[in-house]
Amino acid sequence: MNPQYPEPAVTVCFGVTIDDKRLGAFNSCEGLGLEIVLEQREEGGQNGFIWQLPTRIKYTNIKLTRPLCQDTTEVMAWLASMTSGVKPSTGSITAMTAALKPVATWKLDGVIPVKWNGPGLNLDSPKVAMETLEIAHHGFKAERVA
Asked: Which Pfam family name is an example for this entry (predicted)?
C-alpha cells in the first residue's frame, strides 16, 4: 500500500464496546447516521422560496450483525444486566482495516439495546448461525484515530 494514502477500512470488521466493555467484532454495521429535521415556513409576499428552518437532530438505530461466536456471551451479559432496569450507556464503534488497525471511531451517547435476534437453529437448512443486535443512541461524534 502506498504510504501517501492510508489503508481504508474494510466493510467486514467493526469493533464494539459498551461502557468500556468489549462486545467483540461485528461484520455488518448499518444505521450510523443522523437526520436534521427541517420545519418549513412560508413568508407572506415571498413566493420565490420557502424558509427551511432546522429544528432537531434524529439519530437512526444501529444494527450490528455477526456469526455466533464466543463474544456472544459478552452481549448476553450486557443484555442480562438490563433486567433490573434499562439505563443508557456510552459506547463506541470502530471501523478497522483487514489487519485490525483502527481507522475511525464513533463515540455513542445514551446507548440502549432495542432488539437482539439469535440464530435460527434448523437441521433442515444448515447455514452459519447469525446474531443481530440493534441499539438506539442519543448522538455521536467522530473521534480521530492516530
From this structure: Phage_T4_gp19
Is 9 within a domain? no
Q: Which residues pair with 136 in a beta bridge?
A: 112
pLDDT in tens, 29-44: 999 999 999 999 988 8
- CATH number of the structural domain spanning residue 131: 2.30.110
Does residue 67 lie in a domain region? Answer: yes
pTM: 0.82
Instruction: Please say whether the beta carbons of 133 and 114 come within 8 A.
Output: no
Picking from 73, 119, 94, 74, the residue whose alpha carbon sits closest to that of residue 29 is 94
Q: Which amino acid is at 78?
A: W
